Structure formats: C-alpha cells, structure tokens
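Technical appendix A lists one of the benchmark inputs used to test multi-chain prediction within the project. The record comprises two sequence entries:
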Amino acid sequence: MSAAAYPPHYHYYVQRDLESFWPLHAAPERRVLFVSGLGFDPRCVPAFRVMSELLPEAEVTTFLGRFTNLQDEHRRENERHAERCLAEIRRLRRSFSRNAAEHHEVEVTLFSTDSSRPELVGDQRLLSEFQECLEEALPGFTDIIVDVSGFPRMMMYVLLSYLWERRPPDQNLFAVLTESSEQVPIHELQFSVPRTMLGTQERRPDRPITWLPVLGGSIERLIEIHESLGPEDVVPIVPFPTEDPRLGDELLLDARKQLLEWEVPFANVLYASSSTPFDVFRKIHDFVVAHEAFGDDLTIVASALSGRSLSLGVLLAALLDNLYVCHTQAITYRIDGADRDRLAASLEHASPTLYWLHGAIYGS
Amino acid sequence: MTVIGAGLITADIIRLTDSEWRLQPGEPAYIAGGTVCNILSYLSAWGWRTSLLGGIGDDELGSVVRDDLAARGVDTQRLIVRSGAKTRRIAHLVAARGQYAGTHRFMTNCPLCSTPFPSFVSPSVEQIESHIPETNEDTILLLDRANRVTLALATRVAGAGGVVVFEPGHLPDNAVVHELLQHVSFLKFSRELTWGGQPFRSRVPNDLANLHLIIETRGEDGVRVRGGGLELRLTKIASIDSVDTAGAGDGFMAGLLLGLGPARLRHLDQLTECELEAAVRRGQALGALACLHVGGKGVLYGKSRDELKAAIEETMDSRAAPPGFGSRELPRTCPLPWTETADVICPVCRLARRPGRRS
C-alpha cells in the first residue's frame, strides 16, 4: 500500500497493553532504545519491569532521565522515594543484555536557581545531553520506546518532539504509559513561569490566540496560563469518558468561575476520551482543520492540564498541526504518606499501555 | 595499602589581587602544589598512607614543599633533592574582589619582579628506581603526567596487581600516553583536555582491558562517569560563592577516592552503580568546599578533618555548601625557612632579581 493510500493520521491507531503487543512485534533484528524518566512517582517503574521480562536477551539501549528539583519544598522526602525507584530500575536493568547494552543515566536540574521565580531549564539540558549521548546512534534503532509515566510534562514534550522530528521513515516510535487504578491526589504547589513551545507559526499581535486547554489539575495553573497567553477565545476540552464518570462534570464545576469570567460559551466545550490520546488528537485536529477551512487567521495554543494520556494527544496535535503548547511546571509536589503507599501498592501488577506513534503501520 | 603519587611537584606562590589582577598588599602564601601533591594531602588527612615520588631542588622552596607535605602527613622521604637546582614553582593569583572574584590565574613568571621561573629537570627512570617503595596488589599509583618515568611506574604497579589512577592535566603528543593507558584502571580528566590537538575524550581507546572507570569533569555541566556499561551524568553542586576554583578538581578527585575507599578501589570492575554514584557525590561535595578556600588545597589549612567531614555530609544532603564555611584568607602553612630577604632576592619568588629590576 503506498503512503498516499494510507488514511490520515490516526484514523486508525494502535493502543494496546505492552505485554501483549510486544511478543507479536519482537524480532531478533530489532534494536531497541528504551527512554524513561525518573522522579518520585513510582509509575516510572512498571514499564521497566515489563521490558525486563519481555526483552532479556535483546539488544536494548536505555536512557534514563533523572529529574532533580532543588526548589521542591518536599525535596528530601521526594528524593527518598526517587532513590527507591532508581534502585528498582537499576535492578531490573541488569536483566537486559549484559554485553551489548549501553545504559545512560542523565541527571538534570529542572529549574533555574538565579531568579526570584524559577524557570524551567531542565528541558533544554535534557535535550542537549540526550543528543550528546545518542544523536549519532538514533537512526540505527529500529524501535524507540518512550515511557512518559515519570516525565514532567514539558520534558516529555521536548524529548518526544525531538525524536519525532528526526524519525527516519522506517523507525517505530512508541510511547508507553502506566496509570494507576487508584486515584491518588498529588498536590502541586507553586508553578514556574509559563512557557510556550513547539509551534513555528509566526506569532503576531494582530493574530488572535485561541486557547485549547484540556481541563484538569490546579485551577491556579489554568489561571496562570490564561494570564500569560491573553487568548481571545477559549475552547476547553473536558476529559470524557473517564473511569470516574463524574470527573468531567467536576472539572467543569471547578473551572466554572474562570470560564464565566472569561465569557467562554458552553458551545465551545469539547470532549475527549481520557484514556485514548488519539481521541484528543482527533478533536484538536478537527478543530484546526475546520478553522483553516474558514480561513481563520488564528494562533492556536493547546495546554494539557490533565493526565499524561491526554498530554500525549495534545503533543501529537501540536506536532502534526504545527500548534503551540503552553505549559507551566509545578515546583513543589506533595503526596500524603498513605496515598503514596496506596499508589505504590496499586502498581505492583500494573500493565503499561503502548501507543504506536510512528512507523510502517501508518504508512510512514 | 599505600597510595604512591608521581607527577608535577610545585611550590605554589599564592597572592591575592584586585579585579584588575593587581597584587594586593601582604605576604604571599607558599604551599606544595600539583594535582598529585594536593590529592595525597587530602588522603593523608583521612589517615591513608601516602608517599610522593619525584624531585625538588635544595633551595628554600624545596624545603617549603617538603615541610608542607610532611605536615599534611605525606611521606616525602623518597623525594630526590637535586643539588643546585631550583624547585619548580608557579604563581597562583586569586582575584579577591570585583567581577573576577573567585577566579584564578597561574603564571610561570613572578608577578612582582617578572622573572621567568626556571624549569626543573625531573628525575630519570634510573634515578627514581631506587626510591620506589615496595609495590603489590595493595598499591594505588596516582599519576598526573605521561612520561617515561610514570610509564615505568605504571608498568611496575600494574604488573604487581596494583591499581593505576591517572588524572592528566596535560598530554604530550607521543606514544607514551597510549602505552600508559594500557595500565590505567581509573582515568579522570577535564572536558577541556586535548591530546594531539583533539579533545581527549574522543581519543580514549575503547579496548583498554584494564580501564574500568572513566570520569570526565565538565565544569558547569557536572560530571560524566563511564564504567561497567553505564554512562552516568550528574549535575554539579548548586552555584556557590567561590573564593578560588583552583582546588575544585583535586578536591573532587580526593573526595571520590575517599568515597570509594581502598577495598572498592582494588575492585573497580565490581562497583555497583550506587557505590559509584555515592563516591562521585562525595567528590563533588569536597570539590565544592575546596572552592570556598584559597589555594589548591586551602580548605585543609582552615578546617579540621571533623569539620570537613561534617561539611561534606551537609553538602551532599543539601546539594549546597554550608553557609559561612568559606574563607578568603591565604593558607598559613609551616614556618618559612627564611626570616629576612636580601636585596638581591625577590621577596615573592625567592629568586635572584634580574639586574636593574626592583619590586
């Protein structure tokens, strides 16, 4: 089938649990790069566990981004948990092929220390270190798997967009995500200066901004980004359906005051599945196409304030439709002890989900 | 276990300057310098047995070097004292204020009288031979130069089952470097180091069977560690108000060696990632603390071992040096071997003034 005969992006897609997908995909000639991020969140471990079981003899190169946050008010506690995750990942990594494997661990400091309000600097540092470690070797991998479970959002965006831009036609690019069955509140306190990234369209004062925020998380963050962008129009995206069927309503209620203040008509609200990034991609993409068809001269900026699955979909839309993404990174995280234990326990048998982003199956 | 050091031995002449590199009033400080001397001094402070091989002159600064190292606990009995020779010296200027505060310069001529410092002819292999202590599998050899002497030492120590640690500050463009690397177990270098006009990092052979640990220091970008199939890149300690960064590298290396300890140094190929990282962090902490004092090992003069140990732990935990730990004072060492200075001698470099030159 020629490339031209393939349907538009993600008209069909592959989203499947990693454990059942990989045995069908594996082959002796595959050379795999496995990229993951480490923080205090134990969701960074299950994919490593599954990979170590699925690929013990394969030629696997690993790259682990380790995120240090010196501005975190709960740093010591969070670092203790990060160290436990690191110890487990190192143990699991030993089962990857011992002779041929190369393993890279790169620590980056997330925020600047020389300003009154921290700015995210770790994304560029991560990218430059990644390039130094692996840029030359990248074309030689048949499969690149990025576990986004432990990545701060903007780090995930920078790295995935880099891999996306440089992907050879015959290389498979996957994202993997582990989610917990437990709804554990992770309190985000204080945020960095909002940053707009990825888009390349010229931003002009006379070109109004339409903002597509996927609702979720802290209302403070929603307000910060709105103030930073000053959009003329807001098109909120509500996660629905979700595992908790009331979540969408609750998110709308939480944001109601702001949406009314910003005079956002209810007709602007879009809905996208919380568990399928390709759905939110489709919603954003269709919005962009519709406005292009009308000849609207807009700057469209998306923000993913909800879970990582939706963030992945927002990223795909940004990459394929040349959109901007605006985000602000939480500086301090707090998880109550009992909640942390509950989260860790829920992940013992977690099954990561694989999303096939690019490869021959899409006619790439 | 004994750590034998061989390499550059200097008398560091330390002066404070203003932001225009003009000398500030006051007497210089004179301490033994050179990477090997500094690291041995740190290790001795922690009770390690250390011994220095090399040569000095039978002049005033030779006495200073020997007395200073002996006061640090380094065995200097095996130093070769060349009659009539001038000990190698280097001027170490530290900007005490202004936009360059905390930076340093090294000079090979006197900052006061401008006299070029004389070169020192290092002992030959034959001359060193009779001074080498017994070597066995408990010997750690620490080198910062690649020449026929250090190659002979490395061959002997590696052949006896010992460990060769190489931290070059400069590399000649000849085959000695390649031969020396065959015996090295632990290699540490700065990102700026070149070999034959190219970055050294790109020329380290991949097939060195004995090389188990490589560390590259990258300034603001932290350190890069390679060993056992793992490449580990760690960020540096958060920016501190440096007084003199000259001691960063040697402090880092000393802290790392102390963190590894004798047992793990003998079995570098069996290091776990956790042990390696902990040792690197310790090195970073001591390197950061060294920057808060004047001189290549100035922190050893101003703080007791217990104070330094506590500060290292605190720095590792907080990723920043303890407030108030630093000092801008010149290190005060052993009593100097002179009380007066004749008019014909420069009071700074201790060399005869050139005719017509005054301070």
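Chain B touches chain A through 14 residues (CB under 8 Å). The longest strand of chain B covers residues 49-57. Comparable benchmark entries are summarised in Table A2.
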